[in-house]
Specification:
Layout lengths: L1 H16 L4 H4 L10 H10 L9 H8 L38 H4 L7 H9 L1 H4 L13 H14 L21
Helix pairs in contact: 4-8, 6-8
């Protein structure tokens, strides 16, 4: 029994050391996770090609990211920033996370095409970041991962930046 008590104390100390960051403690309570029906409805509202994403495959691909990123509302930053609310957020703009200079100076807002290019080749897309991940070469896997992230991280189609919308028609001459 004593052995269990010591392990419990060690586990509690480990969990508290890895607990949420200070900003998360002051944040509003997290909304409940979406139901499967709500996820399907969100998926249907996503811009193409993400509206045809395979959420199960996207979840499997996110397993590659989980050691460095969380996706829950008010979740902690790990080696990488929490990704909840990432779409529509300025690159390098999550308060409480220390970004590389490259990301601080990136000058774009995260949306599908930026994340797709990043995931294809993180080091080639933006040299000088802290991210050591080698990337996901398969385009369908990236599409499914982005669809999954949009569904799981609070994406609202209205939050997409105007630059991600269809190009404006050429002016009449």
């Amino acid at each position: 029994m004593r052995q269990f008590s010591i392990l419990a104390v060690i586990a509690a100390a480990t969990v508290s050391a890895c607990g949420p960051n200070e900003a998360a403690k002051d944040a509003a309570p997290a909304p409940p996770p979406p139901t499967d029906a709500e996820k399907a409805a969100i998926l249907a509202t996503l811009p193409a090609p993400y509206n045809t994403g395979d959420l199960i495959n996207g979840q499997r691909k996110f397993a590659l990211c989980r050691s460095c990123h969380t996706i829950t509302p008010n979740g902690p930053n790990l080696t990488g920033p929490n990704l909840y609310g990432v779409f529509g957020r300025k690159a390098g703009g999550l308060e409480g996370y220390t970004y590389s200079e490259a990301l601080k100076k990136a000058g774009f807002v995260w949306e599908g095409s930026h994340l797709d290019a990043w995931l294809a080749d993180p080091r080639g897309y933006m040299p000088g970041t802290k991210m050591t991940f080698l990337g996901i070469k398969d385009a369908k896997d990236r599409q499914d991962l982005i669809a999954y992230l949009k569904v799981e991280t609070g994406f609202k189609p209205a939050t997409q930046p105007a630059a991600a919308a269809a190009p404006a028609p050429a002016p009449a001459q």
